[in-house]
Amino acid sequence: MNRQLQHDSVTAVNALTARWVQTWPGGSVVMAGAGAWPLLAHLASVAEGQGRKELQEAIGTDAATASQAARNVLSIMDRSTAIRAALGLWSRPDLPLHPAWITTLPAGMYGELTSDPTADQYRLDTWTKEQTGGLIPAMPLQLADDVLLVLAMALTVRTTWLRPFTDGIDLFEVGPWAGSEIHVLRRSTHILDRARVADTPSGPLMMLRVMGTGGIDVHLVLGDDSMKPGHVLSAGMDVLAARHPTTPASFLPAGNPGPGMTVRHVRDHAPDDVLNVTVPRFTITSTHDLLKLPEVFGLATVTDTSRGNFPGISTEPLAITQAQQNAVATFSATGFKSAAITGFAAVAGMAPPPPHRARHIDLDFSHPFGFLAVDRRSRLILTAGWVAEPEIPHAESSH
Hints:
Distance between the termini: 40 Å
Largest sheet: 7 strands, antiparallel
Mean pLDDT: 92
Number of strands: 18
Helix content: 10-25%
Strand content: 35-45%
Shape: elongated
């Protein structure tokens, strides 16, 4: 793949994700812009008029080349053993589809809808469960007699930490979770620069890079209490794109140089510097109605059932009536896994002081924080989310 085309495609996907996270008001959430963007790109390529313009603005790519850009994004995902992506298209047999559009889609993804919505729902739910390895059990669409076409994408990320954490239960001394027992993960490393502090227009950020197998990094992002979730996450994305200056932890002064960070000079048995991390374990599930954010996804005009919006799909008029995403993310001692299924439905119309002096840096994610799962090579942001509540011992879930 041409390197510039890859860069442009990644930039466009990440820009959509950034706009999406900026709309989030608070509470735990997980979202996958990378799981929606290829579908929007394929729709943009066959839309017309105002609908085409809105979709083109949403994906940040010329509609004329959007299908190729979608294939570029999918090829990035295919290169990683940690990422699994699949597209699916189902249509009623009485809906004539333009062969030219079908050829722009991945091979082997086409199936037919029958006149039995219950049976079709079961087939699509089964496909969802298989493609996400059971992380998401059902397609987030409700099939009915008037649904003529379904376009869906499954995106799964599974990575194992290169250095695992240890599980524990702890009490944070500060922050909104102070005084409550929560499940935490701990890890110590001599590589201080896994952490850094960024200076952004929204405020300072503390960022921790956790490296996994398959070329996946998960960046934990902590901002000041005054910063909104969307500002923290979007600023973190800008840092990953090298738009804001950062200082590696090894160059930070003693004290509290960033949110959740304490730098100390201590007497220790070993002369090595140490980075100590304490972070809540979490599992988050979310359901998103993309039609509620038409300005983000370019879905305002194409939902108009009084007209046809996709002449490039079929000679029959079509309009989008459902656009949903279900997503889940788990950050555990051994690794990270996330899955998202996005669907569009179209209808007609301590020790004694030793001799060595070392630097000890403590990172405590003791108040709500963000996370970004990123393909290390391309910088494609696969999953973004916010942890508003920690996992409580004996609780069935964290969300």
